Amino acid sequence: MAMSESHTDELADELAPLRAFCAAMCDATAPEQVKADLPGFLAGHGVTPADQAAIAAHAKRLLLYRKMVHSRLRGVVEDFLPRTAEHLGKPRLRADIAAFMADRAPHTVYFREIPGEFLAWAVPRWRADPGLPAFLVDLARHEWLDGEVSNAVAGGESASGIPLAIDRPVQLDGSVQLRRYDFAVHRSDEPPAHEATAILAYRDRESLRVRLLELTPRAAAVCARLLAGETLQAALAGACEELGEALGDEFLAAMASFFADLGERGVLLGAAA
Amino acid sequence: MFQRSADAPTGVGLGLRASFAAEVEAGHADGRVPFFEVSPENHMRRGGIGPARLARIAARFPMLTHGLSMSLGGPDPFDPDFFAALREFLAALPASFGPRWHSDHLCFCGVDGKALHDLLPLPFTGASAKRVAARVREASERLERPMLVENISYYMPLGASTLDEADFVTEVVERADCGLLLDVNNVFVNARNHGFDPREWLSRVPLARVAQLHIAGHELADGDDDVIIDTHGAPVRAEVDELLAWVIERLGPVPVLLERDNNIPELDELLTERDRLAVVYNAALARWCDGHV
After folding, report:
1. Is pLDDT above 70 for A193?
2. Whole-angstrom Cα distance, residue A121 to residue B4?
3. CA B88, CA B71: separation in Å to the nearest integer?
4. B211, B181 in Cβ contact below 8 A?
5. In A, which residues are within 8 Å of B68 by CB distance?
6. How far is CA A66 from CA A70, A143, A263, B179, B235, in A?
7. For residue range A95-109, what is the model confidence (pLDDT) as tens digits?
8. Which of B46, B74, B156 sits opposite A58 (nearest CB)?
9. pTM of the shown model
């Protein structure tokens, strides 16, 4: 028992510098603490006096590491969300990355997934911040949509071979995503127009590029229900009810045309098996 | 004891990057690059154009694999899902030589599930070497293939060292019985930043375990700290060419990988730099051959 405890203590001592280093990368107040009293900061994370002494002279380098870690994360966010980053501005993005690091930090080992983790953290905060443009969250979600759809593992599935049937759900390409925005962030206008928008994104099965379709309110309502797994009948009826429309010939003709277009694009793959 | 594959590619190859992968796929590097190196994390758990393109390139070029996020020195247990995905990715690549190794860095990348996406330094102690070596063995077993570990650039010691870096690297690779991916630029950067002789460092690590080399450019850090950073964002410097030649003269033919991850130039410019390094490599190889005739 004593040996086991001793071994545990040794391991804890060995790993304490790693934990302290990680804290120096993440903690909000780490830069001030490291500059003011690095040994104290290290001691607070269980680093032994001998290790404290070895690290104590390297406050500047520790903060250099922090700068490199934060810069790399900021860089990938700027790469995937360039317009969002531009609207935020460098100081705000820098502060948000620092706050993200302090609050949660990335957990994915896949570098390309960092913007998604960052957005999941940032969106509720941005929504609650009246100082930010009202379109910012929509813009960020739309920019990230491209990364999500282009890299989606799903997509390019074979057609089900089952004709569409009113009492069955449909099979859509696995890369399909539907987004609804309050602003027309899919256009390049700056600032984006305040205009309710629905976008269907999918990965083209030949070029493997992301394609965007701006949907009518009808198409969006039906699509949302089909994506949720409703039968064709339920989706059509539910969409009409939602929009306050009658499920008549004109509506059905419009949807038939929409489905035909999706079929030609390889997005609608028949009835679900 | 670890031995490098006799039929592994040799010469100067390139790290495959998204910015020029389409050109490689179109044939612009044909006949000019003996192999490419790819980072599995950039392609695993991913659909779309990247993996499809990689499959087509891998069918035409020998492919080495080099990981970024295994955190071989980290305190967290390995993630079985990650290893399963990595093993599947590696198995899917065409077997152009064998046994094909996988490499990752002698560093840690995070703690308690946090992934910091950087190569962070380890304490240079016997206990640390022992712990890391056990993890390298575990990684090798999980992947069912040999591992190489790469010496990193480090900018500060992480605690009171009982070993120096060369002894630490040696201790890890000997205990793990793994290969060494020798990053020549990292040796140069560390020598310059920490004030040691890079040739003396190189003479103390087990060159017989070196299966691959990395070479890259470095840059002076911003600010008032006189430290050079392994940025992979600039051409390889003449001093590093010399160190590369020194190693090849002693090692003979191995795969040498030119890394470029920032400020990536056009493919033609990168190929020109590769050609320049190939001249350095071939001249050193000729001297190695003279010594072995």
Report:
1. yes
2. 45
3. 19
4. yes
5. 109, 111
6. 6, 27, 50, 31, 25
7. 999 999 999 999 999
8. B156
9. 0.94
